[in-house]
């Protein structure tokens, strides 16, 4: 079977021939691919969101389609339709761009809610229905959607049900001065450098085999307990009206297993879950009205939760367990 750690290293090195920085994004895209999940990429224009997805698809050897979302895009433009041929008097199936291994929904929040919902079945069921006919999508299958957080006019915010279909929401930040300087130098010497320069270093079959390796990663009960503590904290936080669902619990579990595998381990550690809490939970939280009026963000609420819920093995957790144990002995002495 394909080694997930070797696969990740090959992807990282190959994408690094064009991309500078954003190694965390590459890692999390790999985790999403091995977790059979989808990704929402958010960032201001010009930070290479679409290019990054294209590079990843090419390096992975996946069939790639890009859908430019606009208000006039219809559901049939995504899934496909039946086309009538005058010469034969018959209809033939015309598959839409959703029938690819790697689908980029560019500027997804520019599409109408009806078109956005056309992605729901594909993302969740891995099928597409065209005029009553349900068809399987290819495997592996991943949707990477991009959105611009600063331009609100003419956009349609993703509803909670749509956001919950994404394993991760990843924020692509502006590069540091050092990274941008290296970027200028690289493209000054090779202006033609782009996705075409990327070689395939992984095969679709290898990805499916690596997923089998991930599925066998062991997760200790204490790590599962840490995930449940985090989930429970989102459901009982004063600023959060609706916390994460069981789908989020499973998403974090699967993502932690994939991260462990790409780092060469057959067991997950608390840091695997802790590292991926933010991209897994942030977009799923629904704040209370009072919190929104007070300027509290989902990131703020999650940061408070992360500071409160300690992973097993941390100093704070050991102190808490010691205090509970001492308290129990004191009560027994009484």
From TrEMBL:
Residues 35-176 form the AAA+ ATPase domain. Keywords: ATP-binding, Nucleotide-binding. Residues 315-334 have a biased composition (Basic and acidic residues). Gene3D superfamilies: Magnesium chelatase subunit I, C-Terminal domain, P-loop containing nucleotide triphosphate hydrolases. Residues 308-334 are annotated as: Disordered. The keyword Nucleotide-binding applies. InterPro entries: AAA+_ATPase, ATPase_AAA-3, CbbQ/NirQ/NorQ/GpvN, ChlI/MoxR_AAA_lid, P-loop_NTPase. Pfam families: AAA_3, AAA_lid_2. One of its GO terms (molecular function) is ATP hydrolysis activity. This is ATPase. It comes from Halalkalicoccus jeotgali (strain DSM 18796 / CECT 7217 / JCM 14584 / KCTC 4019 / B3).
